[in-house]
Amino acid sequence: MTHLRVGVIVPLPEEFGYVSSVLDLLTDFREQGRVYHTFRVPGTDTRGLLTVLHDMGQTNAAIAAQDLIRVFRVPLVTVIGTGAALSPEVALGDVVVASEIDAYLYRAKAVEDAEHPGRTTLNLAGTSWKPSAPLLDHVRNFPLRRASRDIVTSWSGDALADCPLTPELRPAHGPALHVTPVATGEVVVGSAEFKEVIRSRNRTLAAVEMEAGGAALSAYHSDTADVLVIRGISDHAARDKTETDGARDVDGRPNAWRRYGVTNATRLLVSLLAAPDFPWRTVDPAGVPGTAVPPRRLRRGSSRVGGGAGAAGGRTAAAALGGAATAAAIEYLAHRHRDAEEAVAAVNPSRSDAETPPGRSGPDEGHDAPDPAAEHP
């Protein structure tokens, strides 16, 4: 049997190239127009699915997260990719994990600028979400605990040793981990002035990106999944963004800072997920959300995905994001005619369906023994 514990959302194909160089990809399959890549977290038996949005934005991320949660029932959705620094304390190549996801454009109002007649300004309102307390506690304490602090030190040192930047751009120190609020919105930020507008709403915001709000909203309405947003910093969200994006590595390849940042973020994600006490969130037999219950097992079969609460949650998420197209797309996902479990089982038909003995617990609970020959294409 196959246990899926994490669903990874990657916004762009370029970022997929950097993420896939770290994760142990097994195979891929297509389900109702979306391609999924199965993977194993290196050094563990933890399995997951990865999907690429091929475009940026909250709506795309919301639909992808809804699919991972409602169809595949993953207990954790992770959004990973590049981010831009809002705080001067965050350097290029650093990694930011969101302690709070701040949708700063929610209910924003465009008004005439009283000090500059004829100009328009934005009055921000916003809303926010947080990861669960156990997940946030795990990430915050990861650099401090005896069992994991050396892992973080090694992660930073190895990242610097593998840094692809040319000598004049190469940072003096390895990347730092920041667990801090992150801004999310539908705007590519390349203006120091607009950075200040965003931070005027919340001075603790340290980075900005474009997908986390959609994934967080879907997880919030699911009541069964958590969300982890992890971003590698590739620019300063300022006027020099284009120049920074154009930096080349030692081999002359473009996008060196993006490659460095996303690779650092993915390696850190692997370390977090590989921790023996990672607080996986699932649902207990009574249907009540919990934090230490075996993950749902995907089996061969032909069970159907009905409308019910899943569809209602999808409609709620779509309505909050706005737009009939989003609502229709999520409704479509919730009423599929073919169970996605068949597609997952089809990539590995030789595995047996032995039941997990009752009463087991722990991070490797219910996982099959690795079989690279059977799983790698």
Largest sheet: 5 strands, mixed, barrel
Shape: globular
User: In which order are the strands of the major sheet placed?
Assistant: 6-12-11-7-13
| Average pLDDT level | 80
- Poorly predicted ranges (pLDDT <50, ≥5 residues)? 284-377
- The secondary structure category is alpha/beta
Beta-strand residue fraction = 15-25%
| Rg calc | 21 Å
| Topology order in helix (H) and strand (E) letters | EEHEEEHEEEEEHHEHEHEHHEEEHHHH
For the secondary structure, the number of strands is: 16
Structure annotation, total helices: 12
CA(first)-CA(last) distance: 18 Å
Give the helix level as a range of percent.
25-40%
Question: Your description of this structure?
Answer:
The chain is an alpha/beta fold and 377 residues long. 33% of the residues lie in helices and 23% in strands. The longest helix has 18 residues.
